[in-house]
Amino acid sequence: MAGIWTAIRDLLARLFGGGDDTARRLKALGAMRQRLTAAKRDNEDSLHALKDDIRLLEARAVHKKRELDQVHGDSKRIVVGEIDRIFRELDGLRGRENIIAANLERIRVALAKVDEAEAALRAGVTEEQFDELAFEIQGLFSELKTLDRAAADLDRERYEPPATSKVDVDQRVEEVQGAREAPVTLSPETEKRLKQLETE
Known about the structure:
The protein has 6 helices and no strands. The chain is mainly α. It is rod-shaped, with a radius of gyration of 26 Å.
C-alpha cells in the first residue's frame, strides 16, 4: 500500500481546497473510493496468500515432528531447530495477519466515511460539516499508514541464532552413534502446538 499515500495526500488536499466546489470534492471522493477499493483487494489477496503460507508451514511442522521421532544425535538437534524456526515464522505470520485484518477494518470504515461524505455533499451540507467528515477521513488514512508501516517492520524482522557453546566431543560422538540419546527436546509450548496440528 506504500504507493497509495502520495495519491491519498493529494486527494485530501483537493478535499480541503478552498471554496465550496462540490463537483471537485465529489471527484476527489470518487478517486479516493477507487484507491481504497484497490487497497482492500490487495489486503484481501494478502490475507488469502497468508492463509496458504500458514497451511504450508503447519504441514511442514507436522512432517518435521515425524522426522524428529526417527533421528539421533546432531540430526535431532537440527530438526528441533527447524521446528522452532517454523513456529517462529508462524508467529510472525500471525502478527502480519492481525495487521492485515486491522487494515481491512480501517478500509471498510474509510469507505463508509467516503460514502457519508458524498451523500452529505449531495444533500448540501455546510462547509463546516463537510470539513468535519474530511478530518475523520484524514484520521483514518493516518491510521492506515501507521498499520502499513507496522507490516513493513514485520517483513524486515529476521531470526538471530543463539550463541555457540563449547562441545563435549565424547558425548556428541555417542549421540551420533545412537549409544546415547541427545539431550535435545522440544519446548513444552512447541510440543503443545505440534499436538494441536496433528489432531486437526
